[in-house]
Amino acid sequence: MIFAQLPQPRLGPHPEYPRYRTETRPPHTSLRPMWACRSCGQPWPCAEARLLLKAEFEGRLPSLSIYLAGLLYEAMHDLYHLNPHDGPRPRELFDRFVAWGPFRRSAAEGRS
């Protein structure tokens, strides 16, 4: 079984959000240590998870940013241990976990 060969994830923040569930499909939460969506198999957070996260954290956007930054840290640890030689670059992981979140700036805003 492939799961027996994977390293044990650390005890950092767990991807327990979004909490939205259906009876027919698994939730759009991450399967660690691969960081793939349990429901659709896409890299987590998938598009559906991003929508659900924004809805769930509406009115608490700083909390969403902190949550995503913590998961970025855990994902970097897990993914680099799985594939240390050609794993995702830090910028790719930042874009995947944090850049889409509530406090992103456009390129024009960053030039001031």
TrEMBL record:
<protein>
    <recommendedName>
        <fullName>Flavin reductase</fullName>
    </recommendedName>
</protein>
<feature type="compositionally biased region" description="Basic and acidic residues">
    <location>
        <begin position="16"/>
        <end position="26"/>
    </location>
</feature>
<feature type="region of interest" description="Disordered">
    <location>
        <begin position="1"/>
        <end position="28"/>
    </location>
</feature>
